[in-house]
Amino acid sequence: MAGSLAKALTPEARARLARVVARAEAGTSGEIVVMVSARAGAYRSLVLLATLVAALVLPWLLIALTSWGAAAIVLAQAALVAVILLASQSERLRLALVPRRLRSARAREAAQRAFWSRGLSLTRSRTGVLLYLSLAERHAEIVTDLGVLREVSPAAWDGILADLITALGRGEIESGLTAAIKAIGGRLTERLPAGPDDPDELPNRVIVVE
């Protein structure tokens, strides 16, 4: 999925999404930023840990279950390490070694970091909203600033996020993001309607991180 990011979000698709963001913001003081990341983490340290554990456990299993000599056990241990490290070169297989809860936690952390590093906390009324999507982890997150948090409960976004992940599973990234942006804009318009002089403080372009 991560490798298809450029194909799924072509420059034309990103331009269309930017226009969707602009329209979604038209009726609200909220500021929506969309970020799509190929992955939230590489997880290489976890693979190394799994390799170490497997290499330590295997000899004891072979000693208990076989009559192999020391040389054969060492060769089996080396082969197991080589197979795991080779398999881990595939992002899909590497992610399969990582518990889903940890993948989701890593994506949430990445969304929080992006919120602060991209300046979403600097709007005049603290109404920044980040829609973050990590393709490798198949995880979506909405991070909001204090002005939005006071008016909209975090649970209010759950359905929007679930629909986005469902669309992602079908390979419909652009249409899923479009629907999510529109739904976020509708919710913000209800709770944080635009004032007479609300500026457009954050860029509408989609941020893509390969």
Written description of the protein model:
This protein is of the alpha/beta class and 210 residues long. The protein has 2 domains: 2-41 and 99-209, Diaminopimelate Epimerase, Chain A, domain 1; 44-96, no CATH class. 56% of the residues lie in helices and 11% in strands. It is built from 9 helices and 4 strands. It has helices at 5-8, 11-25, 44-65, 70-87, 91-96, 100-117, 146-149, 158-169, 173-191; strands at residues 31-37, 128-134, 139-144, 207-209. It has a 4-stranded mixed β-sheet with strand order 3-2-1-4, sandwiched between helices. Strand 2 (128-134) and strand 3 form a beta hairpin. The N and C termini lie close together (11 Å). The mean pLDDT is 88.
- Percent strand: 5-15%
Average of per-residue pLDDT values? 88
Structural class: alpha/beta
Name of the level-1 CATH class of the largest domain: Alpha Beta
Bin the helical content.
55-70%
What shape does the CA trace take?
Answer: elongated
Tally of discrete structural domains: 2
Taking all Cα atoms into account, the compactness measure Rg is 22 Å
Order of helices and strands: HHEHHHHEEHHHE
**Largest sheet entry:** 4 strands, mixed
Gist of the model:
The chain is elongated, with a radius of gyration of 22 Å. With 210 residues, it is of the alpha/beta class.
